[in-house]
Fold:
Amino acid sequence: MLKGLIRAIGAVLTAIAIYSVLGFFILPGIGLRVINQQLANYATVPAKLDRLEFNPFSLELTLWGFSVGEPGKEQIGFERLYSNLQADSLWTKALHLTDLQLDKPKTELLFNKDGSLNLVQLFKLPASEPKPEQPDSKPFPVRIDNIKLADGYLHFTDRRPSEPIEFLYDAMNLELKNLSTLPKDNADMTLVAMGPTGGRIDWSGTLSLVPIASEGKLKVTDGQMKVWWPYVRDALPLALEDGVLSFSTDYTLNLTKNTEMVLSNVSASIAPFKINAPDGRPLVRLERLNVSDTTVDLAKQHVVVGKIQSNNLETWATRENDGQLDWQKLFASQPAKPAHTAEEKLATQASKPASSPAAPSKPWQVLLKDVELRNYRVHLADKEPKTPVALDIGPLNLNLKNFDSLNQSPFSLTLDTGVGKQGKLTASGNVNLSPIGAKLQVTTKDIDLRVAQAYIDPFIRLELRSGMLDSDLAVNLNSVEPLAFTVEGRAQIDQLHTLDTMKNRDFLKWQRLVLEDVKYQHDDNVSISRINITQPYVRFMINDDRTTNIDDLLIAQPANSSAKSAAKPAPQKKPLGIHVGGIAINDGSANFADFSLTPNFATAIQQLNGQIGTIDSRQAKPASVSVTGKVDRYAPVTIKGSVNPFDPMASLDIATSFKRVELTTLTPYSGKFAGYRIRKGRLSLDVHYLITQGQLKAENKVVIEQLQLGEKVDSPDAVNLPLKLAIALLKDSDGTISIELPVTGDLNNPQFSVMPIVWQTLRNLVMRAVQAPFKFIGGLISGGGAEDLGTVSFAPGSSELSPEAQKALDTLAEALKQRPALRLEIEGTAAQKSDGPLIAQERLEREYQYNYYKILQRRGEKVPAQASLLKVPDDEKGPLLEGIYRTRLKQQPPAEWADLSRDERAARMSAALIDFWSKSEVLLRQLGQDRASSIKDYLVDKGGLADERVYFVDATLGEPESDGRVVSPLHLDSE
Structure:
């Protein structure tokens, strides 16, 4: 019995010893040899396993030093692989491992230029025989309690893009607990991966293999976008300069028959982000973009973005000379993918089984709950005009709420941005995508209209010196195809100032233009309840060839453009209906000049005020007109009546009245047509024109007071009549000429013309007066005695009255009040010797102010209402003087001045200008007229004398007194 027990124990010990020898020594050696032999047979590069250990009692297996690849260039390998098999695998019918550990695994993952993967090329595996499919087959049952990957190394390279992609993670750690292929088993998973250049991946959650499902959280921190940007650059020609991405999300994944994937609590941030064009030009600079509270449902194709916040984006966009945007040209420059040959297309189509047309795919729905963009800046440039245009938009702030890509509800939009240097624009309202529509409230403030200069240059020689647009509009977009929208609200343009660039003179300007209650319906009508225009001004000139300054400003357009438009006539549209409830003119003015006359004629109209009634292009009712003003400050003008501006031949009833217009301003016309200058006289004119269906009935009443002719003028157009005798005969006992000239006719007759009839009637009247003088004898009276009124002396170059002169004028005013039958004539005088240098110096100062005023306007700086209010800094005068010298003298400074010092050169140019203006007869006469105006203004404003009793005599040029003062004579005449 004892011997049998001993033999049994010995047998067991022997078996254990043999088992131990086999497990610890023989099987690892055999396994290591077999593994290395198989690696040598199938590996295409050097491959080996250094050591294999096996514990037959604990069933622990450890592999050491596995590598595939050239020494120092290993592509796959690890330092240690450890596994622990449990004995219960025998009766649980599942492979059970308590631990599976992989230390320092290394992988070199390389995609070659042709798309091949290096890992596929490491082994030559024999082709496997096809096995029949087993649709109901189940995965091999495996349960692993703990899987751990420590200090993993992954080096990824992709040479397929135009710029190879390469990144490295040299600290990868993965831990899985309770991984199983058994149904409904879940494993807890944790992954941390970091690279030497920054960027970290954190992945935690659960993993199920049957079915494949996972839940958890994925987080990417400080990911460098440069790593994968070449994939983007091959699709879009954008060069990334800087970009850091952080991303986190909770997820749910289930790969059953219908793949389900839901991302929740998604948040992402990009900060900073910079991209350039291929040539290095900056395109986008972004400080930060944050996306939070976002959910993505793959199965439902549904994305909800809770909040988007972005700060300080700066971008550039340019329209090139050919009219294309630089961004558009960037994307258009991308090379197209090579097209398949016809044989390839046929082979592809033949290999595909015939199928019914695919049903349209379900569209994705994207909801944006809240979008906030702050401090955006957009730099716009347009190189298509001859003069490039640059406009900065920003800081731009945008809020967008409840955006729905399927347009199940409108989204709200709020925009606030700067435009240019000081402009502001805001917009808020709701927008629909399908059908496209919008209701927006849009306001603008101080929009600089000078940005339009480059676009008007090809059509008119006009410089837009200033202009600010303010508006408050409600925009309602109803559809795009066809375009239908309405605009309602208020708009105004302040400080409009345009300059005739040919003559360098003001053309059209106003202080303020207000359009009240504007209603515009696209392609149908525009309605304005009222137009208020404050301080409007316009200059109109007739050139010596009878053309006007407007003709000079317009630029003839190429004939081919008109030919093209004629070749393709625009479709007939209903005329746009225009309705204006009323127009108010406040403190308007105008200048008129006629250079076809010798001497030239010029006059000014000031203090224009009045109303124009309702204007409607779709109604025949005429608009009422009531406008008043003054010619050369004192002569009243009134215009009253009614007119239909869209069909004046149908209905017009206008009465115009000019009272007490100084006839000296009409000297150019009297010289041309009468052959005499006008020494003095006043004109009152009442004109009433009535048109009914083309039938004209006109009444012209002319009253001329105290007309006196001056010297004779040689004019080939002068009438051959004894005018002095006719004037003497036509004057009544008060020295007044009163003429009535009625005119009637049919305006529909092309042979009918009003002015020749008026002139012929006037000629006949004068002829009758000359030919029958005894008929007018009763109207002649002898003039009363004249009283010597003395003189008024002025300091050289000045039109200011001295205290002595004011005292004398006070006495004169009182005397004239006591003598109401007397009237006063003022003869303004100037003397070149004493006045010339001083008025020339004053003119130079005005030139400094005018040119400096233009410079400030072009800079966009705020300026006073008039250039004369400016104080020109002394350091600015030097550069200005150079331009004034060349412009006014129309010559370059002499070459020998180049060697002079700056101060001496400036003194020479200043002296030349003063010498030039000192001899200007125009400036001297203007000074004489100003002196006459000073005398009259004082007598009217301070002396209380009625302006009807004070007349101007044409200014003269005389000689100064011995002390340099200049004397303006005063004359008395009787009524």
Summary: Confidence is low (pLDDT under 50) at residues 339-352, 562-567, 769-789. The two ends are 175 Å apart (CA to CA). Residues 2-42 form the longest helix (41 residues).
